[in-house]
Amino acid sequence: MISHEIRAPLNAVMGFSELLADAEISAADRTQYAGLVKSNGEVLIRLIDDILDLAKIEAGEMQVEMVDVNFHELMSDIRSLMEFIAARKGISFSLTLSERVPQSIHTDPIRLRQVLINIIGNAVKFTVNGTVNVVVSLDKVETKQNLIRIMVRDTGEGIEPDRVAELFQPYHQVCEQAEAAISRRCRGTGLGLVLARRLAQILGGGVELMESTPGVGSVFEVTLNCEAAQAWQSSGSAENQDEFAHRLDHFQILLVEDVADNQLLMKTILTPLGATVEIAANGGEAVEKALAGSFDLVLMDLQMPILDGFEATARLRHQGYQGPIVALTAHAMGEEIKRCYQAGCNAHLGKPFKRREFMELIDRLGVRPSSAPGPAQTPPLA
After folding, report:
1. pTM of structure
2. 81 shares a domain with 9
3. For residue range 301-313, what is the model confidence (pLDDT) as tens digits?
4. For a FRET experiment, which of 49, 59, 184, 306 has its CA 20 to 30 Å from that of 334?
């Protein structure tokens, strides 16, 4: 079943990639095919991420970072995303946030967003006609100071009673069957709901199916046991992609990556931001170039021939290299991330990364170009 879930989008990626190589296709078709390659690639990434996240949870290696989060802003972002998706499907979407819900809570924003996008996104995905309504409220009970309840109600297909028990089981498809097996629709791998529930439990809450009627719809409830943060200072409105331009002016970056396609991709991402990027194709070359050059940042892939990223980083630190090194982890497991820090990396960044994630990491580490006005800063080792 997992093989099928991987091969279906992979078939689209391969097929439309071949069509894109045809010089005679129209500009409109080329745009459409490129969009389909991208969307199916994103499906593959989400599936791989889900499998790895579940493996982390089952191995007891899932780590969360509890910080003060502007909950209202996070919900506003989710509302904008889901309204856009719902509008494309021609269905109605609403999200109501009670005034009693605290502005800021203490939680892991990445994992919380993962839970909410999964549950709310499923409701939108499986609603063909009608509405999806989300209501966020706050309960105060003796054992839980702040219990946030997020009720997600849809007018989708609903779930047959004999399928409900499979909802939160990994690697099970939830299917709706109608008209004596004339049509049969299946809901993916079953990983998303399992992950959403287990992540919510890690965050002190849970995910439950409250009710579901075939042909009428379903109601899911997400609960979060979160303490209200003491204070919140808003970071302001989110930057758009154009505002990233020139943010890396004067930066000299050594990109250590053995795959030519990834070299091209990452250079294409970093160069418009203002950075000068030099390539090292393996760990041995990386050690030589880093020691001989003057780089503000080293982006170090981990899995490479000749010398891997762990050993290359360790050798650089042993030889006195003090510059910041960021491991490119490709959604690494906990043990691999731990090895990054043990080798001497300052941080890790998942592959493929996006511009916003990269810029947030640069800001968090406080890295500055040595050639720019003002003192350069080298972050401490983790």
Report:
1. 0.54
2. no
3. 988 888 999 999 9
4. 306
